[in-house]
Amino acid sequence: MTTETLIWLIPLPPILAFFLIVLFTNRNKALSHSVAIGAALLSFLGAMYVFFFRALTAPELGKEPFTSAINWIPTGDTWLKIGVLVDPLSAVTLFFVAWTVLMIFLYSVGYHNFGQPAGDHDHPGLPPHGATDEHGHHVPSVEPMYSRFFAFISLFAFGMLVLVLSDNLLTLFVGWEIMGLCSYLLIGFWYAKPSARAAAVKAFMTTRIGDVFMLLGIAFLYSATGTLSFREIFTENVLRTLAIIPSGVFGLSAAGLIGLLLFIGTIGKSAQFPLHVWLPDAMEGPTPVSAMIHAATMVSAGVYMVIRVFPLLSLDPRTMTFVAFIGAFTALFAATIAVAQNDIKRVLAYSTISQLGYMIAALGSGAYVAAAFHLVTHAFFKALLFLGSGSVIHGMEHGVLHTGNHDVDPQNMFSMGGLRSKMPITFWTFLIGGLALSGFPVLTAGFWSKDEILASTFNGHMGVFITLAIAAFLTAFYTMRQITLTFLGEPRTKEARHAQETPWTMTAPLVVLSFFAVTFGWVGIPEHFPVLGGLVPNWFHEFVGGTLADPSTALRAGLPEAAPFNVIPLLTSLAVALGGLFFGWLAYRNVGSVAQDRLQIPLLKNKYYFDEIYDFLFIKPAIWFSETFVYQWMDKGLIDGILHSFGKATQAVGATVRKYIDLWFINQTVGDGTAHVTQWAGRRLRPIQSGRIQQYMLVSLFVLLVAASLIYFVALGQPALALK
Amino acid sequence: MEFLNTHLLSLILFFPALAAVVMLFLPKGETKLLRWFALGASLVPFALSLIVWFRFNPNATGFQFEEKYAWYDAINSSLHLGVDGLSLTMVLLTTLLTPLAILASFSVSDRVKPYMMLFLFLETGMLGVFMAMDLLIFFVFWEVGLVPMYFLIAQWGSANRDYASLKFMIYTMGGSLGLLLGIQLLGSLFGTFDLAAITANWTSAQGSLLGFPIETVKAVVFWAFVIAFAIKVPIWPFHTWLPDAHTEAPTAGSMLLAGVLLKLGAYGFLRLVLPLYPVESQHYAGALALLATAAIVFGAFGSFGQTDFKRLVAYSSVNHMGFVVLGIAAAAFAARTSDAHIALNGAILQMFNHGLSAAGMFFLVGVIYERTHTRNLEEFGGLFPLVPIYGGILIFTSMASLGLPGLNGFVSEFLVVRGAYGVGVNTDTAHVMTIYTAISMLGLLFTGAYILKGIMKVLHGPLNEHWAHGEHKLTEINTREVVVMAPLMALILVIGIWPAWILEVINKAVLALF
After folding, report:
1. Tell me, what DSSP letter sits at residue A72?
2. A635: which DSSP letter?
3. Model confidence over B128-182: pLDDT tens digits?
4. Cβ B382–A639 below 8 Å, yes or no?
5. Is B498 within the bounds of a domain?
6. A 13-52 residues with CB below 8 A of B?
7. Using one digit for the tens of pLDDT, what is the confidence trace for B238-285?
8. Does residue B451 lie in a domain region?
9. Domain coverage including residue B416
10. I need a labelling partner for A601 at 20 to 30 A (CA). Which of A50, A618, B177, B500 fits?
11. Residue B304 and residue A626: Cβ atoms within 8 Å?
12. Structure pTM?
């Protein structure tokens, strides 16, 4: 089998699993998860084979990627082709996607309490409430829609693999939207909860705003270049043309406008300001979903796409500035919200928004490789953190079942505390993830990728650098706040005291992911880094940087060299990470309840009131516009009004015709009139019908005389005077 | 066998009508017999049209399977039938949807005989329009399709059926009057009603009619055609008959109304207006595109503003047919460019796709209406645990309607958007198309809104106690109903993943025609 054939096959197992589960195995939980995990494993093996034995061994993958395309849609005399592409960028993305997806699949088995009894009062559409076993103990109960969950995440995995392996924007968009659907289905997995239902709609609609702009960008790009294939677009001639033609909007070049439109898609998908509102609400879904959406797949897809189209994006400096601004602003903005959240998953959600902002800002500053590097490391440690938080929640739910006090929110960090001894594996892996997120120096992957972003932006993008540095401080701060509140100190509730470590299917993925959260940074140590630099080659930079090596010299100018070493960004990076961690621990080490937390600022807790503002500005007007303006006023009032007035006018004309022509003129005047005249005449003439013969004779004689005279004088033309 | 080979189209066309006549002699009490007879009768044209589909040579230009019989020699009108890639696609859609509509009607028990007969007559009417190569025949079948639908709505419709059927009938008749006049004028002018002959002599014809110069006559005919077809599509603002008729019609009636009858208007544009009037079409393409954009945007908003499930789906037709018209307008702007071809490929595929998804959506609304006797969205909600299979099918079909990539609607909408945008960017005179395409994205956004509103209000939410127990207990979709949906869903998926098998036929026709 050729490498290209294998690449075509990689996305297939999950979609087959989806159909198998939906159509055949949905009644059997064990079979369903076996099918799904087996499929994920097949894709994983294919991906690893391609990554290690094909991509890594290829001499110059950037210049000669694996690619293969087929005709898909006839477009007049030509065809729209679709195909697969594995170049360095998609290879590393494939690597982390395959790993995280497989881990998440495995984790879901434990998370949904496979092997536990069915719940006493569980309903499809609601989270399981627990069951009573034969000994009368309260134990967790299995998810009623267990099979459905595995079907959905299989479809999700399919979408992501399609997106990563696409050689063109159209199938990338197909994968993009399939994930959008899955996120909708999965966020609303517990659809009977009104909050989950609302969150699902919100996620779909908010990202769809970005999607329609992106679709327009794709249409524009396709119209302007006649192709959607990356390798055909990123050639010198095409790019140069795109950079020259004006778009007619904001004075941007065609490349600038296309880049902007595509980037708006990313704003939606990667939850950047101002379309960030859906992501925190997406926490309504089961935890593995959060990890899928926020780490491995959907939000990464947005960043992946802009990295993919970087050659196009970088042609217009104004677009780049906009990208950098949005990213940097989001990074800081989301970090400030995260410090005031109490829900363990919500903190991570805002942290995700903030970290994605990092990548976007790096890309906007031209730091292509740094953005890709952070994308990969972030995927590992954020998946780890989400799965870790799910493990914590699961442990807490165990405590809740034990005490039976359902008022305790198992996701609220202020109900926790001291979990490190109860859940040691979860604690240590979560700590690794948290330190990686904070950028704990040298050891963790997060440090290397974040440091590279800071170093890259330091040259020439000072505003971005400062914003990101502040955000990095806040990141370390809220991460340590989270760790301190959750794991350190003493348990704040009875439930936390009875929390329990989760089964191996949940902890094993944590261990695997924490391995990558540490080691993946080491493949990208800058050459000039003090002491460590040069010990291992900066593989990541060379490999992924090679993606842009091929097309043209024009692009090579846009390819960022590894940032020259400068001690200031390094010191900044060290200071914000360690400082944030220290202050986070200092401030929260003795906090016993919410009341003692001084960061519960209403403005931050309410996320700057964006939900309320959007509701007022967009949602309510849209509903009014639809229900009242378009339907009631325009269609029923105006248009139907005009139609009905035609009808009424026709009826009026008809009535008039009937009243004056038919009834009055024809019936009354002509019809009845004739009868009346006849009747009148008849009455008048009645007296001459006397029955007397003499009188009749007399009349006859008279008539005869008159008739004869008339004939004689008129008809025969004799002059009247001749009678004399 | 030889007879079959040479008379394929007329067999497809008249078989349903003949079967309907035979039904007249079947006992009216035997509802089971009547239903199965009608279903069988409608499956024959489907099988025959599959034969036509596979024997059809997409690479040959012009019409295939032509048949010509004397009909009205005195005025040179003949029963001239034929199909090209454009009409064949529509024929296939019609013969596919009619058996499904009849199967969907197995739950109708009121006056089964006339009901089924009307459907068979309706099929003949619709097929005749798509196959006709003679203008007078075209008109005859155009009207033949109208009457059965009127009776279906007026006799088997729901509460407000009198208003709806009258509005439908009078509105469409208003358009047909002009159509008849236009066809008569052309017939007098050219001395024949044969479309091929008229097309051949179109530019060379000289002279006058009743003292009017030929150009004036042609212009009158142009407007007569445009108005008739615009009402049928319907193009905004002629669309208000649609929500009423669709909402009040019986389920199967709505399926065919949305699935096929709306396509007659768009087909008229493609078959008559664009080929005969390239200059006028180009001149008014901007206005047409504006109306199409209005249909897309206001259709989506109108749908979003509904509380009646069926009316929500009905308005979605306005929205989706808007994309068909947008593609047609784009092609009119820049005929014989690759952008126009892409737009038309999209428009014609969208006609087919909308036929599948709209028929499916109306059927699913009917399934739940039959059980609950309400269409009010506020009375639903939380039905998913009660009817999980129905819920899955509803979500699938809704997503097709939404235009989810991977399903059929996306391919056609993308091609239309791409074509329209391309016309705007690449044609000097058509910059407005860029703006209209951009505005239509707003409609695409709200397509998402109304689809999700439908799913949310029907399926999601806390378990609905009212429909969960006792006499109101909602029953799951049954096998017959799944059988109705299965072919639609299969095609939706197949076209979404591999559209080339049908687009090749369409593409070749578009290349030959435009």
Report:
1. E
2. I
3. 999 999 999 999 999 998 999 999 999 998 888 999 999 999 888 888 999 999 9
4. no
5. yes
6. 22
7. 999 999 999 999 999 999 999 999 999 999 999 999 989 988 899 999
8. yes
9. 277-514
10. A618
11. yes
12. 0.91
